[in-house]
Amino acid sequence: xxxxxxxxxxxxxxxxxxxxxLTGACGNxxxxxERTRTxxxxxYDLSPxxxxxxxxxxxxxxxxxxxxxIRDRGSLLVTGPAGAAPPLRFYATDDRTVVGSEIDFATxxxxxxxxxxxxxxADWAQNFVKVDSGEVDAFISNVTVTEERKEKYDFxxxxxxxxxxxxxxxxxxxxxxxxxxxxxxxxxxSGTNQEQLLVAWNDANVAEGLPKIDIAYYQQVTDxxxxxxxxxxxxxxxxxxxARYHSAxxxxxxxxxxxxxxxxxxQAEIGVLTRKDNGLIKAVQQAVQYAIDNGxxxxxxxxxxxxxxxxxxxRINPPGLPKKKG
Length: 326
Prior knowledge:
Blueprint: H1 3-23, E1 36-39, E2 42-45, H2 60-63, H3 68-73, E3 75-80, E4 84-85, E5 89-91, E6 98-99, H4 101-112, E7 116-121, H5 124-133, E8 138-139, H6 147-150, E9 153-160, E10 162-168, E11 185-189, H7 193-207, E12 214-218, H8 221-230, E13 235-239, H9 240-250, E14 253-260, E15 269-275, H10 281-293, H11 296-303
Parallel strand pairs: 3-7, 3-8, 11-12, 11-13
Antiparallel strand pairs: 1-2, 4-5, 5-6, 9-15, 10-13, 10-14
Helix pairs in contact: 1-8, 4-10, 4-11
């Protein structure tokens, strides 16, 4: 077994161990069947087979707009992190197959473009590097449109971006606004728009003479699962779909607030990210719009319980999270 495979195996086993610890006594689970789990009325398929995955037929007029080099290759190279956070993008129960809503969206796009999906895995920051180098065509995994990212990348949107504040179920403090986080230890993923929001809230609090937010950085979701359950974190700011799923299945946390991923300025959106000069974004946007117009998109939304994050149209490079001040 290669070093990469061993690392992936260790990560997957750690994720399953954390999930079993957190969900073992929960009545919201699947009765011991690890291949499916029920949360918020949705039966999530965690298996590698994904027999219910949504597909689409090729649309010739849209596929014709794909750059010739990609058409000749016959595959759409898509990257994203794996992690262990259903329903977005996570390892299935075989510990090696990446599944989730973001894989389904990527599959539908590839189908409409007449391409075979080649889904790859990398750490969050490395996904941008892979797009920069041309190693992959697109980054599809809960990527928020931001003004800073738009300087280097193009986006075709396919979901609203909502982030959630998840806290221990027995937390003794109440959330009302950013001031409630003063002096609290809040976890967040490094390099994410959630981090940018949390830093901005902290700066505003400090400017008003309030205690700092103790920002703790996490790369693996299993680490924050355990930190929340053990009381080492007062809260975690992350993607709303994963927070909803985790709180429902683990039974040890709760979601106390949700926010636009762009803060108060506007409703943020999630988009397919491509390099500006690779000529792919128009075809991707049209593929997403076709899926929306023909009910294919809604099937993915329903399958993964993302009804609160639907969009009516796919937009290329809409306004995003404002740049950091200074």
